From TrEMBL:
Keyword list, A-Z: Methyltransferase, S-adenosyl-L-methionine, Transferase
Protein name: Acetylserotonin O-methyltransferase
EC number: 2.1.1.4
Function: Catalyzes the transfer of a methyl group onto N-acetylserotonin, producing melatonin (N-acetyl-5-methoxytryptamine).
Organism: Branchiostoma belcheri (Amphioxus)
UniProt subunit comment: Homodimer.
Active site: H256 (proton acceptor)
């Protein structure tokens, strides 16, 4: 290998190995409340005022703030040439995605990932050795349902809302769904994707089917605008209760939570509940058919293995799964980050 190529490969390996350091800078900024503190301030803040606001050491805080600046989370203004002291403010992206006051807040989801950093991610070698037994050791026995592991705490609900809130418009436009008049988002949490669907398809009736505890939160927190008024929330458990009538069901980041037997149970129930010609839209972090990418799907595949015993799937695997329960006309689109999309139909009359 040529010297230049060897250096490039060494750097690539080190960047992967050191990636956790970048994550910890972001996780720590969130855990200490730095982004929300700056969001609440009318003016840029010094390291001293920020350290006082979060109750931390001034020098250590300054070093963290500079690291956040280097990673593009903050801007540093008017740095003194001798002391290098300055004032800090949020970037536009950080204000949009890392503050809890923002409607496009990803902070809860990133915080959820931070909570998984020590365990289960540190247990990945054990999970690889043990296989499916690992998730059982973590308490997700095969007989349990999502109700057993779901939480309606603000942080968890915010984590579940984050990606569909930010990327849901791409899902709504992945296929032309105008022919469907009654769209039901199964396990749709507080409705972030449903609101995007309502905006994209104003003539359709949009509903969310989720656990009663989730529906209570969703109704209390729903937006008071036209899209908010058009989305209805229906309580129930998709394993145990009949599905609401619909001609298109949506499952966004649902199937990856479950082992194959439960996935088949969900898909069979959806197929049986649809009218002839009805559709199913699947939204997941989709692997390529050769399983060599994309990176985002690999990360979430391992996360599901660690946390729930589930997995991410390729388009070919979805084709086989959906066909096995009777779906036809399976169309796969993998082109949008972070999700791939599958549209399948029950046999037409």
């Amino acid at each position: 290998m040529a010297a230049g190529g060897a250096e490039h490969e060494a750097r690539r390996i080190l960047e992967i190995a050191e990636g956790f350091m970048k994550s910890q800078v972001l996780f720590t900024g969130l855990k200490l409340g730095i982004f929300d503190l700056l969001d609440a301030s009318a003016d840029p803040m010094t390291a001293v005022s920020i350290s006082e606001g979060i109750g931390a050491d001034t020098d250590a805080t300054k070093r963290l703030l500079d690291a956040c600046t280097g990673l593009g989370f903050l801007r540093k203004l008017n740095a003194d040439n001798e002391t290098e002291d300055g004032k800090y403010q949020l970037t536009e992206a950080s204000r949009m995605f890392l503050t809890t006051s923002s409607p496009t807040n990803l902070a809860d989801w990133v915080g959820h990932l931070a909570n998984l950093y020590g365990s289960p991610w540190a247990d990945l070698p054990m999970a690889i050795r043990e296989g499916p037994a690992f998730s059982t050791h973590r308490g997700l026995e095969r007989g349990k349902t999502f109700k057993d592991i779901y939480s309606t705490t603000k942080g968890f609900m915010g984590a579940m809302e984050g990606l569909p809130t930010v990327f849901g418009a791409k899902t709504a436009s992945a296929f032309n769904l105008t022919e469907f008049q009654n769209i039901c988002d199964i396990g749709g949490c507080t409705g972030p994707l449903a609101y995007h669907l309502a905006a994209a398809y104003p003539k359709a009736s949009i509903s969310v089917f989720d656990l009663p505890e989730v529906v209570k939160v969703a109704v209390a927190r729903g937006p008071d605008d036209e899209q908010g008024q058009r989305v209805s929330f229906l309580p129930g458990d998709f394993f145990h209760d009949p599905l609401p009538p619909a001609d298109l069901y949506v499952v966004c980041r649902i199937l990856h939570d479950w082992t194959e037997d439960k996935v088949l149970t969900i898909l069979t129930k959806i197929h049986d509940s649809l009218p002839p010609g009805g559709g199913l839209l699947v939204v997941e972090h989709m692997l390529g058919d050769d399983k060599t990418g994309p990176e985002v799907a690999h990360k979430y595949d391992l996360l599901m293995m660690l946390c729930t015993g589930g997995r991410q799937r390729s388009g070919r695997e979805f084709q086989r799964l959906l066909s096995s329960v009777g779906f036809q006309e399976v169309t796969i689109r993998r082109t949008t980050y972070p999700f791939g999309h599958v549209l399948a139909r029950k046999q037409r009359v």
